[in-house]
Design a protein that fits this description.
By secondary structure, the chain is an alpha/beta fold. 26% of the residues lie in helices and 24% in strands. It contains seven helices and 14 strands. The strands form three sheets. A ten-stranded mixed sheet has the order 8-9-7-6-5-10-3-11-14-13. A two-stranded antiparallel ribbon has the order 1-2. A two-stranded antiparallel ribbon has the order 4-12. Strand 5, helix 4 and strand 6 form a beta-alpha-beta unit. The longest helix has 14 residues. It is globular and about 60 Å long. The structure holds NADP nicotinamide-adenine-dinucleotide phosphate. NADP nicotinamide-adenine-dinucleotide phosphate binds next to strand 3, strand 4, strand 5, helix 4 and helix 7.
Length: 273
């Protein structure tokens, strides 16, 4: 049991992990007007970790922010070669992704993830509102039958090359958003700009590997979360695929935060605060 400052609670009130989460959500949704939750010395490790992990995302920034996440095996695979990814990482990482969704203004995935997983992209494992859902389908290969385009659970956008879309066009319940076609599909910075123009400032990019890699290569990620599960798949779809380097020292060596999530470990690379 812990105590922390929140206007929703009376002076000296004590709380648990669930209330702490609600307080983080309130901080996020109220434009930073609430005081940040604080833990007393000796608070349980679980609550301290919760606060440390999510406070940077609950506190609003004055600029758009993009965080990507992938759950991968020890050998850097996010799915089998057939595209099965349920589940590479464990329950705690699944809860983590739902918490990140609840803090985000929008979740973004690539067309491959919709094709293979038919995900709902809603908040179900924790309390919180569903963010907007964004699918990159530059060439308009996806049909309207997928759940994100049918269930109406949250505003849903499909980002497509302008030459493949008409303004105002819909795919099921989703709105098609035309963007300029670049040399390599849609430019991640254009995507971020288009979403920010709609008030979708905090973007959580949930995969897959191709989509996250393109954002990383473009320098369009503020943080990258890689949850590593103690499993070796030996083959399958890769996590990150970046342009080749010659020497190990040419690799990226970002500032890191590290959190145990059950048997998995979450590594968070910080590119920009
Ligand atoms: N373990 C995890 O954390 C995790 C998370 C998500 C997904 N998955 C798994 O990963 C697999 C899917 O991942 P993936 O890497 O193969 O595909 P993906 O990243 O989901 O989708 C890639 C596709 O999206 C489109 N796309 C993405 N960014 C684009 C851009 N900037 N411009 C234009 N088009 C863009 C392209 O579609 P077109 O080629 O059609 O143009 C591209 O081929 C599935 O098996 C899924 O189950 C695992």
């Amino acid at each position: 049991m812990i105590g922390y400052s929140s206007p929703a609670m009376s002076e000296g009130a004590v709380s648990d992990e669930t209330s702490l989460w609600r307080s983080l959500l309130a901080l996020r949704r109220q434009d930073g007007a609430r005081p940040r939750p604080a833990l007393p010395p000796g608070a349980p490790v679980a609550e301290a970790a919760l606060l440390e992990l999510y406070l940077p995302f609950a506190e609003r920034r004055r600029r758009p922010y993009a965080v990507a996440h992938l759950g991968q095996s020890l050998d850097g695979r996010i799915a089998t070669a057939a595209g099965a990814s349920r589940w590479v990482t464990g329950e705690e990482d699944l809860l983590h992704t739902h918490r990140m969704r609840a803090l985000a203004d929008a979740i973004l995935v690539g067309a491959g993830t919709v094709r293979h997983d038919d995900p709902q992209l809603t908040v179900r494992r924790c309390s919180g509102d569903h963010p907007a859902r964004v699918v990159i389908d530059c060439e308009r290969r996806l049909g309207a039958e997928y759940r994100v385009f049918q269930d109406g659970a949250a505003p849903t956008l499909v980002l497509a090359a302008a030459d493949r879309a008409r303004p105002g066009e819909r795919l099921g319940e989703a709105e098609i958003v035309p963007l300029p076609r670049g040399a390599d599909g849609l430019a991640p910075h254009d995507i971020r700009q288009a979403l920010a123009a709609r008030g979708l400032d905090f973007l959580f990019i949930e995969g897959g590997g191709i989509t996250v890699s393109r954002f990383l290569v473009a320098g369009a990620l503020d943080r990258l979360q890689l949850t590593v599960a103690p499993i070796i798949l030996g083959s399958g779809r890769p996590s990150l695929s970046l342009p080749e380097i010659v020497e190990p020292h040419q690799g990226m060596r970002p500032r890191l935060r590290r959190f145990p999530l059950g048997e998995d470990v979450l590594y968070e690379c910080i590119f920009h605060d």
